[in-house]
Amino acid sequence: MADRWGAFDADQIRPIHVQAVYDSLSDRPATANRRLDDMSAVFSWGRTRGFADDNPCRRIERVQSEESYEPWPDDRLEILIGQGKRHIVKVALVALYTGQRRADVIGMCETQIRDGIWTIEQGKTGNPVTVPLHPVVLAIIEEERASRRKAQIVAPALPLLTNSRGKPWGKGFGASWTKELIRLKLRPQSVEEIEAGQFRPTFHGLRTTNATVIANTVARSPELFGGIQRVQAMLGHLSERMSKHYARRAEVEHMNRETVLLLPDFGKQNPEIGKHEDGEAAKLLKMVGDEGLEPPTSSV
């Protein structure tokens, strides 16, 4: 704190300054949360002693444990992809189609891509992962390449995905992501306003969505699609336990769908029951076309 803010009075520190420190530690969630707790304790002590009027750490959204990340429902993805700002949506789509973490996605560069294959060493785990890139991701990359050619920039090691100013994303992505979710009304201003049981949109939830879609297909035909090993291969998990964690929701959903078929016919079905709105098809399905988020058919 002294290194970053030593020249400032305590009451000059704003949430945006705390968020910057927190984002710099985002690849180490436990460390980031401990640091946030330490900073919050300092400001709480100082507030009652007249050094600051408010605690700027109070509204910072914490990095959650992997057990708490939810997959995105189709209707929320529709809003994000259909109405979100392009420079944010591009990053979200790369995460959605590759299943990789935020730090690895915004750090993706030319030196890691060859013949449509993205080869990375994951920043969090150090696990090597080879990811065939979906046509949607390849189109996004080609758009970024075209912008660089136009600007006459030759820098293979420079991250490809750029912000609204055409600069590679850095540690400020977290704040921009949160601001966009609030603008789209996908979440309230404060995380304290999210009600119990309400969907909590997170960037890491896009990774969970990727795993859930793959696991749904695997659950339908594990012999054909390679079982839990496919989730392990795509997400870079060395642990079968962690891969099963991501696949559990999809497996339960698939089992419950089959269970419904065991129920008898309790009476005539009436298609007119309830109100049917026109044009309810998700824009996401229209965007990705027939290929969708289907996993590759080759064996793992």
Task: Describe the protein.
InterPro entries: DNA_brk_join_enz, Integrase-like_cat_sf, Integrase_catalytic, Integrase_recombinase_N, Tyrosine_recombinase_XerCD. One of its GO terms (biological process) is DNA recombination. Belongs to the 'phage' integrase family. By secondary structure, the protein is mainly alpha-helical. It folds into three domains: 2-64, no CATH class; 73-193, hpI Integrase, Chain A; 203-262, no CATH class. The protein is built from 13 helices and three strands; from the N terminus they run ααααααβββααααααα. It has helices at 2-5, 15-23, 29-47, 74-83, 86-98, 102-106, 135-151, 173-183, 204-220, 222-225, 228-235, 240-260, 283-288; strands at 113-114, 117-121, 128-132. The chain has a three-stranded antiparallel sheet. The longest helix is centred in the C-terminal third of the chain and has 21 residues, at 240-260. The model is unreliable at 265-276, 279-285 and 295-300 (pLDDT under 50).
Quick synopsis:
By secondary structure, this protein is mainly alpha-helical. The chain folds into 3 domains: 63 residues, no CATH class; 121 residues, hpI Integrase, Chain A (Orthogonal Bundle), CATH 1.10.443; 60 residues, no CATH class. It contains 13 helices and 3 strands.
